[in-house]
Amino acid sequence: MITYSDVRASEAIRVYIKKADEALAAMGYTEHSLAHVGRVAQKAAYILETLGYPGRDAELARIAGHLHDMGNLVNRTDHAQSGAVMAFRILDNMGASPEDIAIIVSAIGNHDESTAVPVNAIAAALILADKSDVRRSRVRNRDISSFDIHDRVNYSVTSSDLIISDDKKTITLTLELDTSLCPVMDYFEIFMGRMILCRKAAAKLGLTFALVANGQKLL
Questions:
Q1: Tell me: the pLDDT tens digits for 98-113?
Q2: pLDDT of 178-218, one tens digit each?
Q3: Which of 9, 75, 139, 200 is 20–30 Å from 218 (CA)?
Q4: How far apart, in whole angstroms, are the C-alpha atoms of residue 191 and residue 130?
């Protein structure tokens, strides 16, 4: 049975993630390194564990989170689909079961907002974990004067957290924004599509999605 530890220990997977991130760096995209996939893996598992899903589902969510951005190695366009194909081959060669492969590949192939659909609980958790990883440290450019809107929005986020309410009815993305760098409206301009997707993913898990920025509920 394939485990998250097996996937993390794979040197081939580590190289693919590293090289995918280097490709994105060359195109000026934010960080998609091992730090990002690690955060996504843990947050996706947290979502399912908190909601009482079986431990195996949480483990599959961790694996999907770790592998979800490898397709950027091929091209940013359609990276969810190419990454899913890469994951299929890797996991098959590692001896993963067809059932586990099917769930992980489906989640990866449906995580990017241009084509995403929360087709199962693992996909929904992956979407929420991935789209909520907004933070200053993901911005590579350190020249504030040359920031584009994506840089400004990400750099303005001084803290973020994704928390499920005690009654397990709401999942809230809480942000602290430096509005001297980025008005809240700029966040919506860039991330409205992601927030709508998060709402759909939350609904798949029986949750309501909420967004709170600087103490104000926006969604």
A1: 999 999 999 999 999 8
A2: 998 888 888 888 888 899 999 999 999 999 999 999 998 98
A3: 139
A4: 12
Residue identified by tokens 């760096």 is 25
State the residue for tokens 């989640």. 107
Which stretches of 30-148 are DSSP H helices?
34-50, 55-67, 79-93, 98-109, 121-131
Alpha carbon of 35 to those of 7, 69, 118, 166, 215: distances in Å?
A: 15, 12, 24, 28, 27
Q: Which residues 6+ apart lie within 8 Å of 146 measured at CB?
A: none
Nearest Cα residue to 201 out of 134, 133, 120: 120
Residue 213 is inside which H or E element, if any? strand 208-213
The pLDDT tens digits for 121-140 are 999 999 999 999 998 989 88
Per-position b or e across 148-173, b if 16+ CB within 10 A of its CB: eebbbbbbbbeebebebeeeeeebbb
Structure tokens at 171: 């999942």
pTM of the predicted model as reported, rounded to 2 decimal places:
0.95
Reduced to 3 states (helix: H, G, I; strand: E, B; else coil), residue 169 is: coil
